[in-house]
Amino acid sequence: MAHLRLTSLILLLIIMACSQTRAQGFLHASGKQIVNGKGQNVLLRGVGLGGWMLQEGYMLQVNGQGMQHSIKARIDNLIGEDSTQAFYDTWLANHTRRIDIDSMKAWGFNSVRLPMHFNLYTLPIDEEPEPGKQTWLDKGFRITDSLLTWCKANQMYLILDLHAAPGGQGNDLNISDRDPSKPSLWDSEANRRKTIALWKKLAERYANEPFIGGYDILNEPNWGFQDLANDKNGLKETGNAPLKQLMIDITNAIREIDKNHLIIIEGNGWGNNYNGILPTWDNNMVLSFHKYWNFNTTGSIQHILDTRDKYNVPVWLGETGENSNVWFTEAVQLLEANNIGWAWWPLKKLGNNNPMQVHSNKDYDKILAFWSNKGPRPTAAEAYNGVMQLATALKLENTTIKRDVLDALFRQPFSQTTIPFKANVIKSGAIIKAVDYDLGRNGVAYFDKDTADYHVSNGNRGGNQGRTYRNDGVDISADPTTNSYYVNHTEAGEWLQYTFEVAKTGHYLIKLNCNPVKADAKLSVRINNKGTKEIAFPKAAGWQALEIKDIELKKGPNNLRIYIDAGDMSLGDMQFTEVK
């Protein structure tokens, strides 16, 4: 009897788990909203797994030919075909794992966008044993199945995004790994048939999976159908007839199998040119747009708001990012105030402005130097070690988690408060680094005059000039001799705030390691928002310790602000010594 009760309990738990997994239901369009199976509005907060199935040169800091097939050929030239394949197998295994998805959920993301490369799912048309037939490859489907399992376990939606279509869908070659020596998607009926067949195959596999959030059927098409010579990326295209027809054909193929899932479409010109494409031809459709390097004003998204209203269809920002924390916070505030979900780009790369930073190694740096004509050809052993170390560096535990980026996405849009960047506890001899100022908005945790990259709007590529350590507007540089970082390129009126815990009430001497770049440099310090001490600089140039005397600190939380009153200076660290 006890055995029967135990069996019944297990079955009940399984039924409950299954019902919880499916409780959200399929996402679908309801007027201008994306809703779940209960009719509740769903605001997608996601990130794209750029660089996993499809590498782009800038993510690997590769200059010149940045298409994946070119990068692969250059690696092959250094280490041979078998070793190159071993690298790519390791890359695919390490880039995104269960720990990544678990972490994304814990940070606050509720969705994942998978940029798919068609060549992991099917052969290119020129490699098909029988022309017109489709050979299916197991690897891409297995990777997608695993990712879906991890997403389901975390109650997260997975959006499938065809990032590299057969033949390539645009003249921005890196995005789709397009080889211009071969027929493009638009030049080849065989490539279009393969694209349609791939979506039908995906629909057959995932038609009954509610945690597939939708099918983003063609990423960032950029092709001048009417005037390819003068409008190669389709920004001025007025008709877009071939693009519309292909998307209709893909939709029809999906709907033969799958009536459940959202179909997400993107306009020409990197996703934003919908001329000639609308109205929609399916009642369960979402319009995607992409947004980079422009102002975060209502005017910057007015075109998509107007389109949403005109056609009564939901919109989604399917790709954005590659900017500063200030820009990120502004963008999230703007989007969510207008009930627009988003997917950041990308999760990780060799770079500073994403949730995870992947780190290079000396042997990979030799490869980059050789490819840039700045160094000798590395040996095969050095090159192999360099790329395999890079593939190992992809693992979450080997990356640097960028807390400032995550804070800018999830806390700062909704809070004016600051929090410490590090848990600094002040005892006699304690040191706080200048680069470890508080986390928070510009004007609250710090103030910097040049905070973000708005070059599409005003030509200004602002933000952290050093592009290292943190992703705010504050300029930070690295000192390779000491493996440390310092604040530099300051301007009058800027300031930095530090919150810290003091172990014992008392008077302290602070030695500020500073380098006055200009002779007129001046700064002042304020403790706990009371009084201001002006600090005189000695006339000598170079790094020196400025003494800030008789600072009273109370036991518990305190804050200190450094104000730049005049001039350009560099700030290293602050050492606190109790005065007895």
Automatic annotation (TrEMBL):
Domain Carbohydrate binding module family: from-to ranges: 471-571
Annotated ranges, domain Glycoside hydrolase family: 91-348
UniProt entry keywords in alphabetical sequence: Carbohydrate metabolism, Cellulose degradation, Glycosidase, Hydrolase, Polysaccharide degradation, Signal
Pfam families named among the record's database cross-references: CBM_35_2, Cellulase
Signal peptide (residue range): 1-23
InterPro entries given in the database record: CBM35, Galactose-bd-like_sf, GH, Glyco_hydro_5, Glycosyl_hydrolase_5
Entry similarity comment: Belongs to the glycosyl hydrolase 5 (cellulase A) family.
Protein name: Cellulase family glycosylhydrolase
Protein species of origin: Niastella soli
Source species taxonomy: Bacteria, Pseudomonadati, Bacteroidota, Chitinophagia, Chitinophagales
